[in-house]
């Protein structure tokens, strides 16, 4: 049996992987898939791919393409979630800020530089017409760190998936003042170049398993109740999330790739264009 390491954020997008592991689907195909949650997010996962601490990762599109442009030897194996990620813009419940415009010139909490929370703060600034020097950052590492930073007024706002943070809003800790969807698809499955190029038949088997599950995920009986219980979400929030989330079972097309790269350059997330044939497995 071939051991394969895969990482991702501990969020409901990745629940299909855990279902397949628990059901033994990967094991039956001769794959010992070891999943590790990375609550620190994209920046940490990029470093783990560089250091060969993992073989594969489910990671934000903008974060990994930025890191690939900076020399990360990682290949894009397939799209994973093709719908945009709905980034909520949050302030502390006691905060005086009521609208996104109130946050101009204020400090954003980010998990680390190069993370999704960092890059999307830049995207939001661009969409609002703010200049780069009007956005300041406070590194907080994790969601728990963001809660502490906002409550203690160390940072003014924080951007994270709007659905995963809903329980924090429901508890009266955060208040959402806006939503900023990504201009591109949410998540991709990537792998370190050496691993991908040396294990093509194994990756084909792995994709067949996960793609079968994600294609049917939304119609699994009571999946909304399961997700609600596992992630502490209200059933109506899970149902809304399921209605706007589309998993992909395909490789990213060259057209979509070029548009994504163009958008990333527009928001100054990457400086140099990437070549499709250099990035796609």
TrEMBL record:
InterPro entries the UniProt entry points to: Ca3427-like_PBP2
Main location: periplasm
Assigned keywords, A-Z: Signal
Occurrences of domain Ca3427-like PBP (ranges): 99-178
Pfam families per record: PBP2_Ca3427_like
Entry's localization field: Periplasm
Source domain of life: Bacteria
Annotated signal sequence range: none
Family to which this protein belongs: Belongs to the bacterial solute-binding protein SsuA/TauA family.
UniProt name for this protein: ABC transporter substrate-binding protein
Organism encoding this protein: Avrilella dinanensis
């Amino acid at each position: 049996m071939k051991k394969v390491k895969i990482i991702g954020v501990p969020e409901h997008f990745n629940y299909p992987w855990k279902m397949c592991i628990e059901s033994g689907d990967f094991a039956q195909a001769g794959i010992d898939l070891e999943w590790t949650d990375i609550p620190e997010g994209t920046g940490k996962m990029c470093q783990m791919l560089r250091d060969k601490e993992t073989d594969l990762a489910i990671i934000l599109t903008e974060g990994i393409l930025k890191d690939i442009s900076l020399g990360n030897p990682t290949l894009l194996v397939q799209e994973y979630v093709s719908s945009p990620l709905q980034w909520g813009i949050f302030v502390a419940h006691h905060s005086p800020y009521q609208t996104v415009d109130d946050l101009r010139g204020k400090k954003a909490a980010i998990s680390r530089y190069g993370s999704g929370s960092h890059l999307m703060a830049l995207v939001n600034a661009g969409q609002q017409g703010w200049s780069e020097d009007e956005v300041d950052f406070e590194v907080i590492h994790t969601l728990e760190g963001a809660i502490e930073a906002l409550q203690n007024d160390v940072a003014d706002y924080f951007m994270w998936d709007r659905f995963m943070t809903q329980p924090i809003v429901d508890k009266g800790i955060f208040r959402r003042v806006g939503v900023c969807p990504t201009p591109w698809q949410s998540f991709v499955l990537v792998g370190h170049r050496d691993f991908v190029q040396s294990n093509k038949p194994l990756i084909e088997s792995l994709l067949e398993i996960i793609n079968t599950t994600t294609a049917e995920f939304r119609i699994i009986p009571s999946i909304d109740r399961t997700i609600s219980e596992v992630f502490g979400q209200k059933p109506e929030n899970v149902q809304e999330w399921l209605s706007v989330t589309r998993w992909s079972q395909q490789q990213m097309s060259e057209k979509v790739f070029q548009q994504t790269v163009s958008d990333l350059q527009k928001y100054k997330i990457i400086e140099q264009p990437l070549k499709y044939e250099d990035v796609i497995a």
